[in-house]
Amino acid sequence: MVHGHSHGRxxxxxxxxxxxxxxxELRVPLYIHPTAPPEPVIKASYSGNFSQEITELMAxxxxxxxxxxxxxILRIIFSGxxxxxxxxxxxxxxxxxxxxxxxxxxxxxxxxxxTKLNKPIGAYFRENIHYTxxxxxxxxxxxxxxxxxxxxxxxxxxxxxxxxxxxxxxxxVNLPVSPQDKERIAHCNAERLLRI
Length: 196
Hints:
Blueprint: E1 2-3, H1 17-26, E2 30-33, H2 39-46, H3 52-59, H4 64-78, H5 81-84, E3 90-92, H6 99-109, H7 112-115, H8 121-127, E4 129-132, H9 139-149, E5 154-155, H10 165-173, H11 179-194
Parallel strand pairs: 1-2, 2-3, 3-4, 4-5
């Protein structure tokens, strides 16, 4: 698990590529976990004419964590790291950190003639990235993720102690998908990815 940037440096920095190389070699996925944006970003984007409590929540669990993680994933893709380490698998939480909602726009705005990547950008989201629920027990965002990347990339997870385990289980039980897809999400996908 990598908690986002390291003092403002992201995994797209070639300094970190030996880690990516080794993870691919070991067939071990890297989990990119949210962290607060760098301090200058917090100051520029999350501070304003509202309380410090709002600033802190907006920069973290209320918004910034998710945007920060989505940006981190985009940076990794744009750097070409997933062309160099094409078998590397990444995991992100919170039903994709907002990416599924934006994916059609991302695909339109970043064609391969612009990115110079080996594949269309959407392919990396469907072939190198896995997504966990992580306390985002919301049906509409789940359906968006399901339709964008397919069931094989989605894994159940709770966000205990920050979110209720009962709520997480109820969400899984009531997902509007087939029993076979629930099994994949509940454990089969994780077993395959983690080789357990």
